[in-house]
Write a structure and sequence with these properties.
The complex is a heterodimer of chains A (175) and B (404). Chain A is mainly alpha-helical and 175 residues long. Chain A is built from eight helices and no strands. In chain A, helix 1 packs across helix 2, helix 3 crosses helix 4 and helix 4 runs parallel beside helix 7. The longest helix of chain A is centred in the N-terminal third of the chain and has 23 residues. Chain A is globular, with a radius of gyration of 17 Å. With 404 residues, chain B is α+β, with helices and mostly antiparallel strands. Chain B is built from ten helices and six strands, in the order H-H-H-H-E-E-H-E-E-H-E-H-H-E-H-H. Classes of the chains: A mainly alpha (175), B alpha+beta (404). At the A-B interface, helix 2, helix 3, helix 4, helix 5 and helix 6 of A face helix 1, helix 2 and helix 3 of B.
Chain lengths: 175, 404
């Protein structure tokens, strides 16, 4: 865990609102981007975002700073919130790749992002989850391992294989 | 540009960055959360770290095993085998199993190796003193004699969870191999089987005994000794006895012949005297001349005296003959007895070579000790300590969502 992040977490555990707010500022873009890509619904993503932070706040006194990285813990809560949401009966939301992509002044970036979205849609969910945690949540392999409850070496190997599969699918489908 | 080549780490990183954003009503959400924060944070329970009971249990087991298993395994390495049959020589051929020996069969060997002080003059006796049916070993056996008379002794030690059953199986096995059970002892804790099996079937018998228990629970000791020196001693003894017997019989015969000659000679002389005595008495009957009668009387007395002497010599000769004959007959009887004894020794030696004597000791083994046969002493506590450390580490790294 970064020293700044560790200090903020300790302060937040002590009830420091500003510290908690700083944590919110630091992690929310990654967390929201992850949730949007996960559930494909901005409204739902906002609800999950808020419930994730609320649960994190409630469980913060029980969080041991040295035991796990704060980011891994936060995203583990987020994943759990998503799972609990999918367990509830609800209407199926059609996949909308456009919702996950922000318009950019750089057309090339947008093309690349669309390409990635299209390729990822061909991958199994396990691979997509790995790539989300790695590139959207920007978590290191060790933190991803804590989130998914596997070892770090397996994480690296699976990410490598996911990218390889994506390339293979791209080559096969001539997208 | 080829899209395949575009799918790189950089593209993915760029994609990930582009996905990150704040929600539209980020400010309101932040404020709402922070507003709830004091109640949420302050009202939450203080963290409690549970005691790692499983790790402590594993560590405790590791300590116990270290204290119990290591000294026990050291003791087993010094465990002795079952006592070897009496007379086990020092020449060990083969030993299996994990146990090493701290005691070797003594060099006392057969009891017959010691000098028999009660019979110092061996020249008068064809067969030297023996014990356990075999004579003393000669120190030198010529290399030209390549004969083998192998005496095999067998001793084994087996550990099992069911002593009574294994002893029963061993007993049946001995009988199945045309052997003989000379001694049997059986209880829940320990047992033993003393047996004799034909040497020709020993190897297959031995293999089957070993197959009754696992290799780790079985130790055997086989010793083989060539009884050629004993055989040569027996053969020498027999030759000497036969030679002595022949000599004695020759002496007896000579004695008989000499006696007959002597008796015939004496009887002939006595016969001559008797004839002359008759003549003298006849002349005395008819002779009236006193001078002649005096001469005849003197001659008669002379003849009687001579006849008496010869008769005494004859009696003496008969007595001496009987005495010498009895002596020779006694010696012949003893020598024939010695020959019978050597033949008996030879038969016993051949019987010893043709059979294998052995003892198998059986002892009960507990589950813990059985496990230590597979896992050397230090591995068990080391493994348990490693498991304790791993369990503690896993406990520390347990599910992130625990308690949420």
């Amino acid at each position: 865990m970064q020293q700044d992040e560790r200090a903020l977490v300790l302060k937040a555990k002590g009830g420091d609102r500003e510290a908690f707010g700083s944590l919110w500022d630091a992690f929310t873009p990654k967390l929201f981007g992850y949730l949007v890509n996960q559930v494909r619904d901005k409204q739902l993503a906002e609800d999950l975002l808020q419930s994730t932070w609320l649960k994190a706040a409630q469980a913060l006194p029980r969080f041991e700073v040295g035991r796990a990285p704060f980011g891994a813990w936060l995203f583990a809560i987020a994943r759990n919130e998503c799972r609990q949401h999918w367990r509830k009966p609800h209407e199926t939301v059609p996949l909308d790749t456009e919702r996950g992509v922000e318009p950019s002044s750089d057309g090339n970036s947008t093309d690349n992002a669309i390409l990635v979205e299209q390729v990822l849609s061909l991958l199994p969910e396990e691979d997509r989850e790995l790539l989300r945690l790695r590139y959207i949540a920007d978590l290191p392999a060790g933190d991803i391992a804590r989130v998914l409850n596997i070892n770090a070496v397996a994480v690296r190997v699976r990410i490598h294989r996911a990218v390889a599969r994506a390339r293979a699918l791209l080559a096969a489908t001539n997208v | 540009m080829n899209k395949l080549s575009l799918f790189t780490e950089g593209i993915l990183t760029e994609w990930g960055t582009s996905c990150r954003r704040l929600p539209e009503n980020a400010g309101a959400m932040r404020a709402e959360l922070l507003a709830k924060l004091p109640a949420a944070v302050q009202g939450a329970e203080a963290p409690t770290r549970p005691v790692p009971w499983f790790s402590l249990a594993l560590a405790g087991m590791a300590m116990v095993s270290l204290l119990l298993v290591v000294p026990r395994q050291r003791g087993q390495n010094l465990q002795t085998l079952a006592p070897a049959p009496a007379g086990m020589p020092t020449e060990s051929i083969e030993q299996k199993g994990a146990a090493t020996l701290s005691e070797q069969p003594g060099a006392a060997g057969y009891g017959g190796f010691a000098e028999d002080e009660s019979y110092p003059d061996k020249s008068r006796r064809a067969v030297p003193p023996v014990a356990d049916g075999l004579p003393m070993r000669e120190a030198d056996v010529p290399a030209s004699d390549s004969r083998q008379f192998l005496k095999t002794d067998y001793s084994a030690s087996a550990e099992t969870r069911n002593v009574v059953r294994l002893v029963g199986r061993l007993q049946a096995l001995v009988k199945g191999y045309d052997g003989r059970v000379d001694g049997l002892r059986s209880s829940k804790e320990s047992g033993s089987v003393e047996f004799v099996v034909p040497a020709s079937r020993f190897e297959s018998f031995r293999a089957e005994v070993a197959s009754l228990v696992g290799e780790r629970f079985f130790t055997e000791f086989v010793s083989t000794q060539n009884l050629l020196p004993e055989k040569r001693t027996i053969e020498d003894q027999e030759r000497q006895a036969q030679s002595a017997l022949t000599q004695l019989k020759t002496e007896r015969e000579k004695l008989g012949v000499a006696h007959k000659q002597t008796v015939a000679n004496l009887q002939s002389q006595i016969g001559g005297i008797n004839r002359e005595l008759k003549e003298v008495e006849a002349q005395l009957q008819v002779t009236l001349n006193q001078d002649m009668r005096s001469i005849l009387e003197a001659r008669k007395q002379e003849l009687l005296k001579s006849r008496g002497t010869l008769q005494a010599r004859l009696n003496e000769e008969n007595w001496r003959y009987q005495s010498d004959l009895a002596g020779l007959d006694a010696q012949i009887k003893v020598t024939e007895g010695d020959i019978d004894a050597t033949k008996k020794q030879d038969a016993e030696l051949l019987d010893t070579v043709a059979t294998v004597r052995g003892t198998i000791s059986v002892s009960w083994i507990g589950l813990w000790e059985a496990a230590t046969r597979y896992v050397p002493a230090y591995w068990l506590p080391i493994t348990l300590f490693a498991a304790a450390l791993y369990a503690y580490w896993r406990n520390r790294r347990r599910d992130l969502l625990a308690g949420i």
